[in-house]
Amino acid sequence: MAIALHFEHQIDRTRAQLSPKTLLGAIDGTGIACRNTVQAFLREMVRVQLTDQPSRETIRQRSPRVSEKCERLMLVYLGINLHALDLIDHGNRSATLARSPGLLAHLQPIFARRTCLSRAWYDPPTEVRCFTHCTSGSSILHSLVLATQDRQPDGDGRIWIGTVSAADLSQRYKVSAAHVARMLSTAGSLGAIGWTGPGRRGNGWLSTRLTGSYLLWQAEKLAALSIAFQEARTAFKVARRI
Known about the structure:
Layout: H1 2-11, H2 20-26, H3 35-47, H4 68-89, H5 93-99, H6 104-116, H7 119-122, H8 126-132, H9 137-146, E1 158-162, H10 166-173, H11 177-189, E2 193-197, E3 201-207, H12 208-241
Antiparallel strand pairs: 1-3, 2-3
Helix pairs in contact: 1-6, 2-3, 4-5, 6-12, 8-9, 8-11, 10-11
């Protein structure tokens, strides 16, 4: 939603710029974040160079400015997800975005508002939420579910995926092993993941409940993106004629 505010202002200078106040207002009523969380989030965006560092003289007055790096990453992210839609219906959405990157400024805000204001997306089932509400948890969940491809569940609703190591995942996603271990332990207590041996040793499995909830969560995102793409393409065509 932070990036959406940036693009909305870019298209229409009368729209409010990104700031802690406008970001908090954009997600009002969702319970996603409080004021302190929003401020911490914007500081983190500066740290990872998704917004430019304001100068000391203007840090109190200047609104955060989304960086070119952030725009490029968002273009890649939406391109990947549009390609996923194209694989379903043989469309050409991702190619359209690649040919017309200016479409991004129209597409991302519509998509962000549809997902960030959708309870099915921001408040998924507990077995999904125990990953997505943690740092790098969404990426870790993606990789775990990806490992279930071409595998069938056993009679107890478990899909065996081999070794699941907190140490390996922490190294891959640049977070602490303790952080990943807590995440996996929480998922294990919910019956979403398990191992043949104690202490997360031996072969690991995911429950069909977790994979099913994950797929529905992803479907919610792709459905929002499909609608957003159609609306954005129309708005982009109108803007180019003005």
